[in-house]
Amino acid sequence: MWTGPTGELTYSGLRVVELADELRGEIVGKLLADEGADVVKVEPSGGSIGRHIGPHAEGFEHDPNASLYFWTYNTGKRSVVIEVDETSGRQRFDELVAAADVLITSDGPGRLGERGIDLDAYLVRHPALIVLSVSPYGLTGPWADRRTSELVGLAAGGPLLSCGYDDHTIPPILPGGNQASQIAASFGHTGLLLALLERQSSGLGQMIDVSMHEAIAVSGELANPYWFYPRVHLHRQTCRHAQPSPTQPALFECADGVDVYFALILSDTKTWQTLVEWLDTLGLALDLADEAYLSLAHRQQNFAHIQDIMESFFLMQESADVYRGAQDRGLPLGPILAPEQLLDDPHLQAREFFVPVELPTQGEALFPSSPYRFSYGNGRPGRPPKLGEDNGFDFNDSSAESQVAAHDAAHASTGVGLV
Amino acid sequence: MTATADRRPVPRVGPLAGIRVADFCWMGVGSVATRMLGDFGAEVIKIENRRRIDRPRLLPIYKGEARNYGEELADADPDRGGLHNNYSRNKLGITVDMKTARGRELVDQLISASSVVTENFAPGVMERWGLTYARLEELAPGVIYGRMSGFGHSGPHAHYKSYGPIVQAVSGLSFISGLPGQRPSGWGLSYMDNQAAYYNSAALMMAILRRNKTGLGAEVDVSAVEVGVGMIGPDLLDVTVNKNHMRRPDYPRGNRLESPTAAPHGVYPAAGEDSWLAIAVFDDRDWGRFVTAIGSPGWTNEPRFSTAEGRHQHQDALDAHVSSWTRQQARRDAMELLQNAGIAAAAVQNAEDLNEKDPQLAARGTFFELDHPVIGKARFEGTPITFSRTTQHTWRSAPLLGEDNHYVFGTILGLPEDEITELENEGVI
Of A158, A274, B87, B101, which sits 20 to 30 A from B317 (CA to CA)? Predict the structure, then answer.
């Protein structure tokens, strides 16, 4: 039984079996693998669902080893093909689980039952095992076997209603990047940590039942407190906080066509003076420098006028200059960066946040690295596995240690960047 | 207001019992991050400053009074704020004036009696008080120092100011959210306050897990922006692998899905004002069930809708037809109808739906209630995890400002009562 890291990284030596076709489980496996765990992804012979979801690497359009979607969420794992629904496959799967510290699943109870996967039975057989179930609604309750998706998850859980445009003839708009699953996975990870901490003292495993629906329902920030206390609803607004009543726009377009987010907050006089000084650098302080504007009431009365001047001020400058100009004055402002701009961000570059990862197809590409930095050592994403490339793997094999070493070496073969 | 008997600190149970946290966290990210530690047994001591009140205490989320997030009352009662109550349950609260030498001494003493220190100030604030990792390690050997900031503690933008929407802007999350050809819709909430908090909780527990084995402490640096970039998803690899750019006319996709080619896939108007229904039909089997569930109207027989490819290609027409059906439906009834037919669908639920109508959240006990001396009974967002062994230890609502000064400085640090009273009178605590 694993009692803590066996090497530099937090999860080094931790043995994980992942029977999770859905992101909500897969992401937890990735977080573990990136910090040193030995994560074995169990896949059907056709490959897990994600291998067939695009986009794919160009030139490899239908290759199950070339899905960028799969690569994103499966770095550093092993891939073992096992037909878990067949007798011989089940035996092989059970052997893997018997030697593991953690089993991750992502299905609801009905689907697990159809496949004959009895999570409780694994716990009875292996008292130290931690079973992490990250399912759509949880393993119990009237909705346990309902269907979900990224869109349906954020709708049912509430945050979707806060996201969209000022124009309410436009429906709420799904934020990008599969965030329903990200929210569930975050609780999968913290839930697993609590269970691992518990096991360090008791030696006993347990069942962790994470409900994606519940996880999303408690992640709406202000919507629930506004219901708990004043019992009012929030109304969505374009790219800024949903509020009980409308507030001013917060996006300003710059000369290069890039929008910046800036919430014009008038209440603080010092901030106001900083803003006016900044406007003055382009000769746009105009009447705002008048003493009358030192009164909050006057600023509030002339909000539209101030907003007009700000619009012109931002339109005269490049977004990068606006970003630096505001932040160097202590004003919180940020450009709405497209993913391609992140690669050129001097701050992320200085922190060596993007690291090269060997691709299962050919060559290497930059991936985002560890989201946390520990003074004792940071993990990094390893090469995503080709389908079935670790088929012979066995945790208990006498050569398992060397297998692990070989695997680590393979995954670290592009060892530049973070230590 | 003094602590009544039922608000006195109790021995804590749970996987983090025995861990004392000197918690300098405030605002959203830090408060939510240490909430999980407090929920599961850690003794989290929230260190506050009477001259710079934690903003969630002042934000006007009050019973019986609807004000916007930014519209604080000039003389707001720091014990009345609902957001603070939601963020800081199960924590102890003390006040210290860090501008005084005596206040800093007291904090050093508290750190010496703790094994975790957490903060989410702008980089440099803790250093100004001399509270570097090296100093903390002297005070409390093996300490874990959790540092939560927008940009991380190194790099040219380390000093940049941020809060949720700024983090979402500069990490790419806002850009990837919206309708093609329009400005981004982004997020209508500080999504990254929550996610950065969850990652900070995890990072702290990872360091504790390691310390339990090795006895060694750690400094932990989490940048909310980097957590955000890690959540963009496959579009980032579409840039780094395929050299595609996302700043283009047909991106982002709004509520539509390119892969798999699901359709109908969207948010459709239901009966009533600002009432919506999300529907995701992924394949032919889903489509067949959907058509039957809505009563097989004539348009569903059109040949262009007979294949997944056709439905995806003709989404504008398809969505118009689907809307003609959804407009006649109450959103929750339609959700029941479609889910009973095996379709992924949901009412776009508001907070009232979640709290008063959602049978799943009710059955799972997602929300719970606690009393508070100023606010009265209030609901709280629970932990969305059900364990078979571990239990959440909920013992109290959020601390009043300075509520636990006597317990922490007296019982934990051993100061005599008269000295604590003097510190109060001098404004040190």
Answer: A158
